[in-house]
Amino acid sequence: MVKKLSPRQAFEALPFSGKRAGEILRKVIGSAMANARQKGMKEDELIFKEIQVTEGPRLKRFRAGARGMAKPYKKRLSHVRVVLTTKVQSPKTEVQSDKPIENKQEEKEIKKEGKGKRKSPEASSE
Q1: Domain range for residue 56?
Q2: Of the N and C termini of the chain, which has fewer Cβ atoms inside 10 Å?
Q3: Is residue 103 part of a domain?
């Protein structure tokens, strides 16, 4: 639902989604937009690159039960990750070098020469 919207539109629409996680996701998107603003990006150019909700740690808790017994339960937490990027991508600049490209066959030959057994200087003088 949120991925197709711009971050500004998602920030405004999430409180009215009727979902329990809407307010939490709104805070994370607001934080991501503030980080982008701090880095000098314009809010109008921002789009979602990725939104992930993954499993976090589980906290083991106990609730009082009948006849003095403890009823265990787990509080499950999650990690929310929002990555924003800009619509406008900078064009790639090609760098041309003046060096001629060396032939790969010459490099292979050099490597083959170095792999042989080395003769000691004493053995070569005999």
Answers
A1: 1-88
A2: C
A3: no
Give tens-digit pLDDT for 9-23. 999 999 999 999 999
5: domain CATH number?
3.90.470.10
DSSP 41-100: --GGGEEEEEEEEEEEEEEEEEEE-GGG-EEEEEEEEEEEEEEEEESSPPPPPP---SSP
Residue 97 falls within a domain, yes or no?
A: no
- Residue 121 structure tokens: 């200087």
- Give a yes or no: residue 125 inside a domain: no
Indicate whether this model's pTM tops 0.70. Answer: no
